[in-house]
Design brief:
The complex is a heterodimer of chains A (308) and B (395). Chain A is an all-alpha fold. In chain A, 73% of the residues lie in helices and 2% in strands. Chain A has 11 helices and 2 strands, in the order ααααββααααααα. Chain B has 395 residues and is mainly alpha-helical. Chain B has one domain. Chain B is 72% helix and 1% strand. Chain B contains 17 helices and 2 strands. A two-stranded antiparallel ribbon of chain B has the order 1-2. Classes of the chains: A mainly alpha (308), B mainly alpha (395). At the A-B interface, α4, α9 and α11 of A face α7, α13 and α15 of B.
Chain lengths: 308, 395
């Protein structure tokens, strides 16, 4: 498939597609981080994760509308307000869902999968009733438009770079929270040995709720970031959910670094192949390779080594 | 001897359940519904094949596959390819630039039939492929997954990804597969027009017949030692392994069985509906198949049939009158079944209707033969739609 390209052309193609893949990478990282926290730390499959992301995106859409009509002077900064709002709205809904539904199902992981799928159907239809079936987009503030020229052939769009910065800072934030804070220590204790964690006085039910809410909140941030690079429709979340699950499983369920590495690998493979093959074949090949590797190495790239 | 035991089974309680279902499908529905509605019931029944497979695979053995649509679709596509080739005779397609190949290939500038379409000229090969192709794929997936002890949630996600891959592949390779429209405009089966009302009624009864064959096959498996091992594997996989059983082999077997059922269902679907498209394969379609099984009761093969009928009937009903409400109802169904009654309709039946039944049965028995048949009566009463008393929760 490389026939007819000179090596310098190939280099530019790889660089270009690589940068294009980075925005896919950012979305994957943001979605997969939330999912990895919920799935890796609690063993719960949240099929409605994409819908939480879309909730964040709609929050951003509404916030941008609000700023446009009432605070046009501050429009340049609306995104940060929207991101914080999206986080808290999604986290609150996540905590509610955990309280109503998930906590009854911790011992039946396959059933949480079905129940959250039901939730995702309901949320999707709710978006369709409230916002309409058409996709909506937000107006970017002026400082986010344009591109940074890197070389003659490669331009970096500012919004893409911005989203990537958000993705990486959220990743760092999650890392600090999970590995450098008291809360993270408790979460890891509950993951590794629930009865023992309870015995030393950790409120494991509270930890579960907070963790689920945190995962959903990060999905909200992902949604806010998503509006910067694409438009939002009621079923946009579903389009990403299978890929994101593969990212999490491929990376190794309990490893945050693994999640980021696999998000990078999958997004880059897909975006590079897209140039040479059709979009659908690129996706098929990527997914098949991931499935193939998972068959050889079911525990994922970077598995947490635990004695059982 | 054999004959009398068969008779005894038919008047036993379990036999009566099967008779009731047969009465509903063979007598009641054909008499009360017009040809169009009956065809729709037939369409719902093709999903019941998948649901029965899921009962065996998920309910009994604890392997949740979110890719049953793949096998349903493969069976359906095999049948559709045969029917399409029959419909694309050189005479019927004379206006194409290449006569004799299916119309969508001509639209996509293909000039000859792809190699994998060639064998589908033969009907016997097609019948073999309807079961063989899904089973082969299930076998390969099963070998790869179960011998490496991939299970539970991971298996569910990977099967879902496979459903996604196949859908994207079919939509992307329009020239070979008909793309997003699927394979349409199917007319005759061995020269027999399948679009007439009469033909559709006959196909309905063929579908019911096949359904009962599958039900009996599933029943055969579940009542043998094989079925017991499947259930044991779900509850305590390690203990089964340490008892010397090859757990992976049993899992592969039940996964292939479910795939075979789904393939048969898919082929009948193509015949009854007259086309096949990727929308019946994808992630959404596949996960909906799980709810048919869950609503009926994940441990009851008869329940699965009722589950498939009810959910699909409700879906058509809602989509006709309140299309925007259906996703809410479907979502609530998923959540409700899982949270409130994980054993589905069969579980409800067992706890609310069975006690009444027991009273009736006991009275009858005591009237006719008070002491002598006491033991047999109790033995018969042992049967329940739930079939097993273990709880699906894993410790």
């Amino acid at each position: 498939m490389f026939d007819g390209y000179t090596s310098s052309e190939l280099m530019s193609i790889f660089a270009m597609q690589g940068f294009a893949g980075l925005s896919l990478f950012s979305v994957f990282v943001l979605m997969a981080l939330g999912l990895a926290i919920i799935f890796g730390q609690m063993g719960v499959i949240n099929m409605a994760h994409g819908e939480f992301m879309i909730l964040g995106a709609y929050t951003t859409y509404l916030t941008s509308g609000f700023f446009q009509s009432y605070l046009p002077g501050l429009f340049g900064g609306y995104f940060f307000v929207a991101m914080i709002l999206a986080f808290f709205i999604c986290a609150a809904l996540g905590a509610l869902v955990e309280w109503l539904m998930i906590r009854h199902l911790y011992h039946r992981p396959l059933d949480t999968l079905l129940a959250t799928w039901g939730l995702s159907l309901i949320m999707q239809q709710a978006y369709r009733s409230i916002f309409g079936a058409r996709e909506v987009g937000v107006d970017l503030p002026e400082w986010m438009m344009g591109a940074i020229p890197v070389t003659d052939m490669v331009d970096l769009p500012i919004n893409g770079v911005f989203v990537m910065i958000i993705a990486l800072s959220v990743a760092v934030g999650v890392y600090l929270l999970m590995y450098r804070s008291g809360y993270g220590k408790k979460v890891r204790a509950v993951v590794q040995n629930r009865p023992m964690a309870e015995a030393v006085g950790i409120n494991s039910a509270g930890i579960d709720r907070a963790t689920f809410a945190l995962g959903c909140g990060i999905a909200g941030i992902a949604g806010a970031a998503f509006t910067m690079i694409g438009s939002t429709g009621p079923s946009s979340g579903q389009a990403y959910i299978v890929d994101t699950f593969l990212v999490v499983v491929f990376g190794g369920a309990q490893s945050l670094i693994g999640t980021i590495v696999s998000a990078f690998g999958i997004s880059q493979a897909q975006s590079t192949m897209e140039f040479f093959l059709s979009g659908s074949m690129a996706k098929v090949l990527t997914l098949l390779v991931v499935i193939g590797i998972l068959m050889i190495r079911p525990e994922g790239l970077m598995a947490l080594k635990v004695r059982r | 001897m054999k004959h009398s035991s068969l008779m005894k089974w038919f008047v036993s309680r379990e036999g009566l359940y099967y008779l009731a279902l047969a009465f509903l499908l063979v007598v009641l529905l054909p008499l009360t519904l017009d040809s169009f509605r009956l065809n729709m019931v037939g369409k719902y029944l093709t999903y019941a094949f998948v649901a029965i497979g899921l009962v065996m695979c998920w309910g009994k053995a604890g392997i949740l596959s979110l890719g049953q649509g793949v096998f349903f679709g493969l069976g359906g596509y095999c049948m559709a390819m045969f029917l399409k080739l029959e419909a694309s005779t050189p005479e019927a397609t004379a206006i194409q630039s290449t006569p004799g190949i299916p119309d969508f290939m001509d639209w996509n500038q293909l000039t000859e039939l792809p190699w994998f379409w060639e064998p589908f000229h033969s009907f016997s090969f097609t019948l073999l492929a309807v079961i063989g192709v899904p089973v082969l794929l299930a076998f390969v997936i099963g070998i790869a997954m179960f011998t490496r002890r991939v299970g539970g949630v991971y298996f569910a996600i990977i099967t879902q990804a496979i459903a996604a891959v196949l859908t994207i592949l079919i939509i992307g390779q329009q020239g070979y597969t008909g793309g997003v429209n699927g394979i349409t405009d199917l007319q005759t089966l061995m020269g027999w027009d399948i679009r007439t009302d009469e033909a559709r009624n006959i196909l309905y009864f063929i579908c019911v017949g096949m359904l009962f064959l599958c039900l009996f096959a599933a029943r055969l498996v579940q009542n043998r030692k094989l079925g017991r091992i499947l259930v044991a594997m779900n509850a305590q996989e390690m203990r089964v392994r340490f008892s010397g059983y090859d757990v992976a082999a049993f899992k592969i077997f039940v996964f292939c069985l479910a795939a075979a059922f789904a393939g048969i269902g898919g082929a009948l679907f193509t015949l009854l509906v007259g086309f096949m498209s990727p929308s019946f394969i994808g992630i959404v379609a596949s996960i909906e198949m799980v709810i048919f099984c869950a609503l009926g009761g994940r441990l009851s093969i008869l329940g699965a049939v009722y589950g498939a009928l009810l959910v699909n009937a409700a879906k058509s009903g809602f989509s006709e009158s309140f299309p925007e409400l259906w996703p809410f109802a479907m979502g609530a169904l998923f959540i409700g079944v899982v949270l409130a009654f994980p054993d589905g309709l069969a579980g409800l039946y067992k706890s609310y209707v069975m006690p009444l039944e027991n009273k009736v049965f006991k009275r009858n028995k005591s009237k006719t033969a008070p002491v002598a048949t006491r033991q047999t009566a109790e033995k018969v009463d042992d049967y329940s739609p739930m079939n097993d008393t273990y709880s699906p929760e894993k410790s």
